[in-house]
């Protein structure tokens, strides 16, 4: 079941088309990566999903019906632009946000204290927001976004300002939210995080959908027929290879040699294995798929060139 569907959504600001007949769907219970370069239309789409902006044409469905302001109460949104009141105490701030989201004060404080303990920031409960570092403020805003346990969460660049340890903690919390039943949109430029935690992605540029699907499927669309093979012992570099197999790199230790090979389009994994298995004991073998970072760059550059030519 899809929690969100957009059908031919278009949004213009004057002569600028921010979204151009954008159609995509987000599976319930998934982590969905919303990707694109700056100015691609990601923020415009998020604002339409949260009813901040209204599409000029097209439709947005939330669990099968046209989205309404009442549905927004079931959405948690962490915007890229941070919005804490710097002179307020942290506790006053988070309780205020929880109350805005419909929680009773007693329940809100109990839940918030549990979250503060989980993030090991209990000592900041009575401090002023302006005393917090950027990363600490980010933790506070994350907690404020999830405290009411919404069905649908949107995180816009949630790892900004975090060191690797805190970024990893946040990833674990996002995975846990998914396990508890939440659907999550992750809008980020951190492609490594997309590979780690996203189930599906949509890549947009110039307001148009370029790629959409499961992360593994999208990466396979850009496969380059490149493979990694490890053989026990040393590899005889004098061994002639057929013209359809080209060695890109080798790496050896006292136990094994690992090679990266580029194959011509008319040959594949079985051909490579047959070639090596006759002479070597295979220790490891696998196809090297392009990273999401490589996919992002290739798809966006190709699309931008088309726009420049049109």
Structure overview:
The chain contains 10 helices and 14 strands. The protein has helices at about 40-50, 70, 90-100, 105-120, 135-145, 165-180, 190-195, 215-220, 270-275, 290-310, and strands spanning about 1-15, 15-25, 30-35, 55-60, 65, 75-80, 150-155, 185, 200-205, 210-215, 225-230, 245-250, 255-265, 280-285. The strands form 3 sheets. Strands 6-7-8-3-9-10 form a 6-stranded mixed beta sheet, with helices on both faces. A 4-stranded antiparallel beta sheet has the order 2-1-4-5, with helices on one face. A 4-stranded antiparallel beta sheet has the order 12-13-11-14, with helices on one face. The longest helix is centred in the C-terminal third of the chain and has 18 residues, at about 290-310. The chain is globular. The two termini are about 40 Å apart.
């Amino acid at each position: 079941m899809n929690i969100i569907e957009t059908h031919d959504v278009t949004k213009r600001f004057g002569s600028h088309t921010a979204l151009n007949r954008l159609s995509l769907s987000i599976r319930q219970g998934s982590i969905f990566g919303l990707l694109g370069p700056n100015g691609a239309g990601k923020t415009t789409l998020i604002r339409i999903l949260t009813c901040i902006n209204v599409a000029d044409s097209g439709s947005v469905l939330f669990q099968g019906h046209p989205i309404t302001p009442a549905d927004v109460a079931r959405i948690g949104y962490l915007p890229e632009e941070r919005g804490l009141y710097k002179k307020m105490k942290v506790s006053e701030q988070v309780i205020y946000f929880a109350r805005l989201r419909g929680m009773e004060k007693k329940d809100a404080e109990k839940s918030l204290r549990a979250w503060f303990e989980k993030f090991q920031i209990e000592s900041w409960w009575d401090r002023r927001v302006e005393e917090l570092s950027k990363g600490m403020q980010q933790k506070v805003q994350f907690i404020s976004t999830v405290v009411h346990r919404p069905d649908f969460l949107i995180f816009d660049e949630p790892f900004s300002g975090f060191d690797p340890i805190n970024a990893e903690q946040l990833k674990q919390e996002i995975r846990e939210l998914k396990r508890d039943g939440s659907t999550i949109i992750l809008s980020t430029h951190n492609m490594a995080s997309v590979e780690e935690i996203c189930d599906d992605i949509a890549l947009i540029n110039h307001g148009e959908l370029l790629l959409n699907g499961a992360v593994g499927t999208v990466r396979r669309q850009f496969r380059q027929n490149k493979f990694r093979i490890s053989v026990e012992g040393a590899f005889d570099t004098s061994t002639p290879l057929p013209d359809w197999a080209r060695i890109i790199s080798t790496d050896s230790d006292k136990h094994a040699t690992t090679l990266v090979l580029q194959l011509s389009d008319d040959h594949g994994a079985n051909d490579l294995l047959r070639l090596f298995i006759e002479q070597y004991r295979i220790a490891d073998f696998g196809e090297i798929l392009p990273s999401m970072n490589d996919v992002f760059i290739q798809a966006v550059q190709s699309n931008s060139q088309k726009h420049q030519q049109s």
